[in-house]
Amino acid sequence: MPDQPVRDDRELLTRAVELAGRCPPSETAFSVGALVVDAAGTVLAEGWSRRRDPHDHAEEGALADLGPGWRAGPGTTVYSSLEPCSARASRPRTCTDLILAAGVDRVVFAWREPGLFVDGRGAELLRAAGVEVVELPELAAAARTPNAHLLDR
Question: Signal sequence: where (predicted)?
Answer without folding.
Answer: none
